[in-house]
Amino acid sequence: NTISCTNEMYGRKRLSLYFMMREISLFVLYRIINSQEGIAHIQK
């Protein structure tokens, strides 16, 4: 019972970490695309 409880907590931590990483990577990608568009505007 104790083992399954800790496993569940560990799984939740891993899941939240995964979602956090995904949000960060999406944010970084969004910023890169925006900066590239800004550079394209400057070059014009």
Helix run count: 1
What structural class is derived from the secondary structure elements? mainly alpha
- Major beta sheet summary: none
What is the residue-averaged pLDDT? 86
Oligomer, anyone? Answer: single chain
Q: What is the share of helical residues?
A: over 70%
Order of helices and strands: H
The backbone outline, from C-alpha atoms, is rod-shaped
What is the rounded Rg?
19 Å
Query: Strand share of the residues?
Result: under 5%
Indicate the low-confidence ranges by residue numbers: none
Distance between the termini: 65 Å
Query: What is the number of beta strands?
Result: 0
Give a brief description.
The chain has one helix at residues 2-43.
Describe this structure in words.
This protein has one helix spanning 2-43. It has a domain at 19-44. The model has no long low-confidence stretch (mean pLDDT 86). 95% of the residues lie in helices and 0% in strands. The radius of gyration is 19 Å and the shape is rod-shaped. The longest helix is centred in the middle third of the chain and has 42 residues, at 2-43.
Observed structural traits:
44 residues, mainly alpha, 1 helix, rod-shaped
What is the topology?
Layout lengths: L1 H42 L1
